[in-house]
Structure formats: structure tokens, C-alpha cells
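# nightly structure sweep
# worker-07 picked up a monomer target from the shared queue
# config: single-sequence mode, recycle default, output format = C-alpha cells
# input follows
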Amino acid sequence: MSRCASNAFKVLISHPNVPAPALELLRSRGGETIICQSVPPSREEILKKVPGVDAIYWAHYQPLNAGILDAAGPQLRCVSTMSSGIDYVDVPEFKRRQIPLGHTPGVVKNAVADLAIGLMISAGRNFHAGRSEIERSQWKTEQIDWMMGREIRGSVIGFFGFGGISQAIAKRLQGWDVARIIYHTRSRKENEGEFKAQHVCFDELLSDSDFLVVAAPLTNETREKFNGKAFGQMKKSSVFVNVARGGGSCTQNVKSITNLSKCLGLVNQPDLYNALTAGTIFAAGLDVTTPEPLPADNPLLKLPNCVILPHMGTQTMKTTIEMSLLAANNIVNALEGKPMVRPAY
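# output follows
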């Protein structure tokens, strides 16, 4: 009989604010939840509490690697993150040890899609610049061409990556009278017809998009894909939106990173800054940055045509609870000898 079936398993919870429904699910299946109390999570506390557990519920973005697995011990049977992206996880190490690894994609798509459209509108319609003008007592009432922005209506909407998030955005835009929906991925999506979308090469995506939304995984191939050369191929009237991946917090922990290049996101931010200040593109809306948190003196924050949010894409209670339950179910399934609901490999 498995330890899970005999109601005798231990789960390390890496963050004290994991929603109660997920903890209740684990406990209802006989789990003992060992909850770390530090915010932000303390690696020292995790390493102290993790030895001897059967499962790890990883609810933050610090490196999840051999150091954690070694500290847990050979009885460790599975791990699930409470996130969709797993670029902070040493996946090859999990494969080498044959430890099941789960994550929570899919459930985030609707919340992120809503926020992405919000960024398209707020960047395209000068929300940040307009608010700044009010604060500087520069609200102009007699100029017809003041704060002219870009409409989604009649625009070409481009996607770099066309997975669940991009498709959720495209679905929402079906009633917005857009001119075209185009996307670039390594291969054409069989369901593109559902969204009236067309697969194009990367150069065409750059040159034709009025709004370009980045919603792709961070890989060696996509790292800094959007650089000075790419921005130079875009329309001067284009709006750039990134809801994919930045470099996260790893640039603040360089000593623990073998290769600093792993900290870079899909966007070269100095090149983006230059493109925005030089008028190479019209505006940008970012929910992810490098690093995170973004320092308050970062030059992007000084630009009137750049809307920046503190990685809020999944920050709704509905989506967070759904993510937490999916992570818990990944663990329960693995401990009961079943496939994880959403395995990471």
C-alpha cells in the first residue's frame, strides 16, 4: 500500500499564502502540510523543513534545483509548482532523478488574456502619459490632436506564440472588428481557423503587426528575441505588449547562477527603451520585466509611452485558487501512482 493510500504523507508548502482550498485538499487525502512561514520565502527555512517530505508544493519563483532535491532526501516522490512557466526549475535534474514534476498551465490563460487586452488599450491610448499630464497640470482642452492613440479596431493583431494565452486573447478580439490576426510559432496551429488567424514568418509578424503581443515560453531560442533589430522592423505606430516571461528575480541572485545569460528574458530591455525614446515604435505595455522586482530607478519607468505592471497577470482570486488546486491535484495523483494532471515533462 502506498504511503498516500495509508494516509501518511508529508508535503512541504513553500509559501504561507497558498490558498486554503489547496491545503484542505491535501489534508483531506491524509497529507501533513509543513508550511514555510517566511515572506518572501526563505531558502534557509525551506532547507531546514524539507528533509523527509514525500512531496514539495513550490509556490514561488526561486531556483528549484538539485540543492532542494538533495536536502529533501531520497524518499521524495514528486514536486509541483504553482506556476505555468518553469524557467526557474532545473528540469533536466528532475528527469535525471526521474522525479515527477507538475506545473499549472492552462488555468492562467483567461486572467492573463484579460490583462493583455488591458495593456493593449492602456499603452495604445496613452493612459500613463495622460495621467502624467494631469499630475503636471498639463491637461490641455483646446488641442484637437492632443494624446492621439491607436485603436484595436481595424488593426493587425500579431502574436509571438499562439498557445492558450494568445488564443484566449484572439477569442476575445473576435468582436472587435480587427483587420487580421497573425501569429508566429515554429509550426502552424491546426486550430488557427477557430480564431481567423494566419501563421506568418517572424519578419512578417514584425512588419505587419499594429499590436504585437508576446506570449511565448522563455527558451534558448526565444531569449532576447525582441532586440534592437526586431524593433527596427516594426511599424513606428505599433504597440508592443509582453505578458510572457521576463528574466524574473534571477539577476538579483547572480552568484547562484552558472550562466548569467539564463537571467535574460524574451525582450532586450535597453533596446526596448531606445526604441520607445527614438520613436521606433509607438508604445509598450509590460507585465513582465528583467529583473523582477524592477528597480524604481529603471529608465523604462520614466517613459510616458511605457505602461508597466508588477507581474499581475494571474492576480485574481479565481485563477489563483484554480492554480493552487491544480498543483495540489498534481501531487495527490503522483502520490497515488497516477499521472499528474499537468506534468511538466
